[in-house]
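Work Package 3 (structural annotation) set out to generate three-dimensional models for the target panel prioritized at the project kickoff. During this period the team completed the workflow that converts sequence records into discrete structure tokens, so that structures can be stored uniformly alongside our sequence database. As a representative example, we reproduce one entry of 133 residues exactly as it appears in the project archive.
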Amino acid sequence: MITVVGIFEDVTLADDVCEYLLGNEFDADSLDQHTHKALAGHNAHEPGAIDRIATFFNHLFDNRHEAEAHATAGRNGTIVTVHAPSARLAQEAVDALNNYGAIDVNAFDENATGTRSIMVERIVADDVRLRGM
């Protein structure tokens, strides 16, 4: 299984790419969409949600700096995750996420290579996946 992740500043673009993917070889079980929302009367960085986002990216990346950069971006946007069974479908997901406007998480890190949607050959356990919230 190959996991593909894109982060969007605009939730409408995330919705649009999910609709596109669902109409083109992907099923609902292979897609996760998560928008971090502050709960009414709570701090914008509600601890449970932050921990879940951090847990997801720490599971996905061995590099803690990279995991934290993606978690920070994810807390400020909408995360779309595609779980693809083949390299061909993973590349199609990367292309779609990028075409719909996935952000460059490392845009302000002069030491990083620019990455928008990322592909990681790692299975994400069901209890770590970001489904809704």
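The first strand starts at residue 2 and ends at 8.
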